[in-house]
Amino acid sequence: MTELFECMIINVNVKTIIILLIMEGVLRMALENKCQCAEESDQEKYTRISEIIDEYKNKEGSLIQILHLAQGIYGHIPLELQKFIAQRLDMPLSQVSGVITFYSFFSTQPRGENTIKVCLGTACYVRGSKKIIDRLIELLKVQVGETTTDGKFTLEVMRCIGACGLAPAITINDEVYKQVNPDKLKSILKEFEEVKK
After folding, report:
1. pLDDT category, 142, cuts 50, 70, 90?
2. Whether residue 123 is found in the same domain as residue 79
3. CB of 86 closer than 8 Å to CB of 96
C-alpha cells in the first residue's frame, strides 16, 4: 500500500512539474511577445477549445474553467462560441450563457488591448468616480462596456478594487491609479499609450 501511495505522489508531482513547465513556457512566450494567438484562424482556435473541452468535460463543475480558457484563446465568448461549447458539453445554451452573463470576468464582445476599470465602491463613488466615468466616456468616445474603434481601450466599471484609501481609483490592465480626478485622465492615457506600447 505504501508503494502505491508513493507512486501516486510521484505521478502527481510529475504532472505538477509538467504543468508548471508548460505555464512557464507560455508566460515566457507572452513576455517576449511571441504569442501567435492573434495570427490563428478561427478554426484553429475552435480546435484548441475543442481539445480543452475534451480534457475537462467529464469533470464536475468544469464549465467556468472551460469558459475561462476559451476566452483566453478566442479573446471573448460570442454567441456562436457559446453554442459550440454548449453542444460539445451536451448542456443547454442557457446554462452556458447564464454563467457568462453572471460573472463579469467573461465578455461576449471583443475587448481592447487595454482594459480600464473604474471603481464604483462606496469610497470611490463618494469621492467622484462618476465624474471619472463621464470624462472617460468623453475622451474615449465609448460607453461603459464598449471598446474604442481603434481597439486600444475597453471601458468597464467594477464594484470595488479594495483600494478605498486611494479613492477614487481606476485600474488599467490591473495596474492601480490612485486619487484620480477627471483632469488627470488625459495625461494618464497619454502616458499609458507611450510607455506601455
Report:
1. very high
2. no
3. yes
